[in-house]
Backbone:
């Protein structure tokens, strides 16, 4: 079944590591953005009834409760099997959570990133471990138990001891889903740009080495899996049955429709993307689609599907097209074959981006 993604690219502050198309914006732009989103919903020709919804950002948990209900009311499919709200720790209240539930939200993803105050301070985050624990308790009190917590391996000043402290905090909270991201270094974030330039701002000179980040990630895999939170995708771990139904659509190449700035869509044949910034999205409405391409189902089968722990099953034509590549990766120890299924090895996961590039023409 298809899904809906809604982009809310507004934040109270821009985190140093963030490379998303989000920013601190004027309130007037937020109000105009909401109206354009509603207009985009209204003109969309629904050819299916979605069963999942994901409201991402930015910080959509900062939206006023009444506005959340107004924003989601026009969308089909309620009650969705899964409807996720991304939230910043410290932005939750009982009033907000009740409004989310009335609007159909039944899952919350908290952008924790770390439980260490010194690490959080250098990224621009304002919460601490106690804030996260309080938010998780509040969600459970309000009958939302489907909770994800995000962590980032590789933040400035992070050590093996502090990373283990964050992992232990995750285990104490006993949530069903955890996402572990390795720090991305590119010039789309302030921290990434500073690292590339060899500077010291934002703690760039204290970022762990690639080898240390890989070790942190592998420790997370071992620790979480030892407590029944198993990796099902490179960055995503869950207890059995708690996998993100919406995000699985991306990796299984199921259709989803994106609304808002920089939102991506896929109808099973074609991919398209809206313009990147909130201001451009508002000013160009209703002509906010930026680009459209035909998907190559064979390339994407491996480019996307190999992210999953379950791997993929190549067809005879896939073997004819990519056979030498498969054999090279298998002999190199970065891919393994079990029966008719191919998957990345633990070593392959650490070089997955290089492997994925081999399947792009």
Residues:
């Amino acid at each position: 079944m298809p899904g809906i993604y809604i982009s809310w690219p507004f934040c109270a502050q821009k985190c140093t590591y963030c490379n998303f198309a989000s920013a601190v914006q004027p309130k007037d732009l937020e109000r105009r953005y909401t109206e354009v989103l509603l207009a985009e919903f209204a003109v969309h020709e629904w050819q299916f009834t979605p069963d999942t919804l994901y409201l991402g950002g930015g910080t959509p948990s900062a939206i006023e409760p009444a506005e959340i209900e107004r924003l989601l009311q026009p969308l089909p499919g309620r009650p969705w099997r899964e409807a996720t709200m991304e939230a910043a720790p410290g932005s939750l209240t009982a009033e907000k959570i009740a409004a989310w539930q009335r609007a159909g939200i039944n899952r919350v993803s908290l952008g924790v990133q770390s439980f260490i105050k010194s690490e959080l301070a250098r990224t621009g985050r304002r919460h601490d471990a106690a804030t996260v624990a309080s938010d998780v308790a509040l969600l459970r009190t309000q009958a939302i138990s489907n909770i994800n917590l995000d962590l980032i391996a590789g933040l400035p000043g992070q050590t093996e001891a502090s990373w283990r402290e964050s992992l232990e905090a995750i285990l104490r909270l006993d949530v069903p889903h955890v996402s572990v991201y390795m720090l991305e270094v590119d010039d789309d974030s302030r921290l990434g740009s500073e690292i590339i330039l060899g500077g010291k701002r934002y703690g760039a000179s204290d970022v762990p080495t690639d080898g240390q980040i890989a070790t942190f990630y592998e420790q997370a895999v071992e620790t979480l899996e030892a407590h029944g939170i198993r990796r099902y995708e490179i960055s995503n771990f869950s207890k059995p049955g708690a996998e993100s139904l919406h995000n699985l659509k991306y990796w299984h190449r199921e259709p989803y429709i994106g609304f808002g700035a920089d939102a991506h869509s896929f109808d099973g044949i074609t991919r398209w993307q809206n313009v990147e910034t909130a201001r451009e999205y508002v000013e160009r409405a209703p002509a906010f689609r930026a680009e459209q391409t035909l998907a190559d189902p064979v390339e994407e089968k491996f480019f996307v599907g190999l992210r999953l722990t379950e791997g993929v099953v190549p067809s005879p034509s896939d073997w004819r097209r990519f056979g030498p590549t498969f054999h090279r990766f298998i002999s190199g120890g970065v891919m393994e074959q079990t029966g008719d299924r191919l998957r990345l090895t633990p070593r392959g996961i650490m070089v997955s981006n290089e492997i994925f590039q081999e399947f792009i023409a």
